[in-house]
Amino acid sequence: MNERTSRVLEFAKIKELLLAQASSSLGREKIEELEPLVDAASILQALQETTEARAIYRTEDFPLKGLIDVRAGLRRAALGAVLQPTDLLEIASLCVCSRRAYGFFREKTEQYPLLSSYGQQLVPCRELELAIDDAISEFGEVKDSASSNLRKIRNDIRTLQSRLKQRLEAKVRSPAMQKFLQEPIVTMRNDRYVLPVRLEYRNQVPGIIHDQSANGSTIFIEPMSAVEISNDLRRKTADEEEEVERILGELSQEVQAVGDMLRQNLSLLAQLDLAMAKGKLSYLQRAVQPLINEDGYLNLKNARHPLLPAETVVPSSVYLGKEFNALLVTGPNTGGKTVTLKTVGLLALMGQAGLHIPADEGSELTVFQTIFADIGDEQSIEQSLSTFSSHMINIIDITERADHRSLVLLDELGAGTDPTEGAALAMSIIDYLSGLGCRLLATTHYSELKSYAYQTEGVQNASVEFDVETLRPTY
To answer: Which is more confidently placed, 210 or 153?
Structure first.
């Protein structure tokens, strides 16, 4: 679709509303990529997926909690790297999410056939999930139970630590030793158990010096009687690190083995997250699934602009494309003409992107290959052109690119120049675009164009009003 049209009609703001409804960064990524479709079958499927997702949102507890983007971890595993415990926990979370979603749709295939087609392609990877759960704690630490060897090593470490602390604490409690100490405690320096010895007594405590206090008054000494046990402890700690690395390596290989399945699950769950976001937005906007035709006509019933406050927005009903292809909307300024134009354009974009539209049941959209809009003074600000010149540059571009499969939206056609010349120019533009067979919706306050519409086949008048008492449009 035309990038400028999307910007003018504020389709990006619809995406922002959708982003707030996504459950994961993967779903938000899908939303960022969302664009209107131009194939009727694809549009209809996307709309029906939104309908199913809305029904799920209203009545079910859909299990997307825990969906995390683990693509970086999967890439590292594919290269043979050893994953960290936090990486493995995230992958286990993906396995849980996949298993629950698979189970959900396995039982509800008839209720939600389209979304079930995604759910039934999920691979639970239960063995990997259990392997990670058995080995890694919820705090991201490798459990003692991850292997019998690790359990034995850690038991040995705890025994050595206890013996070492007991030996050093006995020294601390010794009256002969206490006079040499800055404090009667056992502390750690460089992963070794040490005693805080006063500088002047350093030669009274045989051992290895590991550190000195900032003011130099305290020396941290590992007594010789503790060195042998400390060395044993250091060796056991190295054994522990080696065993943990081995366990993480094996789990990483298991991840690598099912990497393709996990990547497929990510893609499928992201698609489901996108559908659920669309369903939630439909519910929040009190929107409906529009009917879709390929016959070039639209029929919007009480359509509401989705970005305006629900309590103040005034509905519009717009019909175009059967008996006439061009609709001229007339009325005073602030009467809502531009809002009507934007509503039609934005709802057309939304419908073709598979989004429900805020309108009454039975509203119908057609499939446009292109949508063009000339609304506002964006170009005149960017290019320092006069309002009239900027509009004409855009309209010339539209006339060169539009065809019978296009929707064209023109705001205040012919404005910004002499009224007589502007009205004549506007009629010429309408004649040309009508000749192309495109669907045209234009606003104007020129009375000449009202008469032109009455007299011209294929062109119809519509009007909006402004209530001077309530200061609100009545369209």
So the answer is: 153
